[in-house]
Specification:
Layout lengths: L4 E9 L3 H9 L1 H4 L8 E3 L5 E2 L6 E8 L5 E12 L3 E9 L10 E10 L3 E11 L1 H25 L7
Antiparallel strand pairs: 1-8, 2-4, 3-4, 4-5, 5-6, 6-7, 7-8
């Protein structure tokens, strides 16, 4: 098989773009919501240098068996609060070849007065795992929505 499928997932939030963008790019905020249900981000694994060429790193841990998925990325584009693009190597996920980078593009579009449309575009994936990863992003966006609802998008963790 050839990794040739791009996953696109969208969700609109009733929160202004700067707060939603920050939830993605400030490591301490990212740790509050990343991962599907039953997973968490190891806070001691977090690092991030939010600029073009900056590196970021996090480890997600499945709570049932402590299985770890490691993400190492480099921002190739970074335009706050509009978009970031990252070239990522992911290890520990059986559906992803850790030797082939994935591209993650996250767009933040202002909708109406204060809403933000988040569009995630990631790949390439192998065709047989792309759907599972799209579902995973939908679950993570549910967690992001709950985090933003709890904090009103006003979390000040730095």
């Amino acid at each position: 098989m050839t990794a040739n499928v791009i996953v696109t997932v969208e969700r609109e939030f009733d929160i202004p773009r700067p707060q939603v963008f920050r939830a993605w790019t400030v490591p301490a905020e990212l740790a509050q919501w990343r991962g599907s249900p039953g997973w968490h981000v190891e806070t001691e694994s977090l690092s991030g240098d939010a600029r073009p060429g900056g590196r970021h790193h996090h480890v997600k841990v499945r709570e049932s068996d402590n299985h770890r998925v490691v993400t190492d990325g480099v921002y190739t584009e970074f335009f706050e609060p509009d978009v970031f693009v990252s070239s990522e190597r992911i290890s520990g996920d059986p559906g992803i070849d850790p030797n082939r980078p994935l591209e993650l593009r996250v767009e933040f579009t202002k909708m109406g007065r204060n809403d933000t449309l988040v569009r995630i575009i990631q790949g390439p994936y192998e065709p047989d795992v792309a759907g599972w990863h799209g579902e995973g992003w939908e679950k993570e966006l549910n967690r992001l929505a709950a985090y933003l609802d709890r904090t009103g998008g006003q979390e000040t963790i730095r």
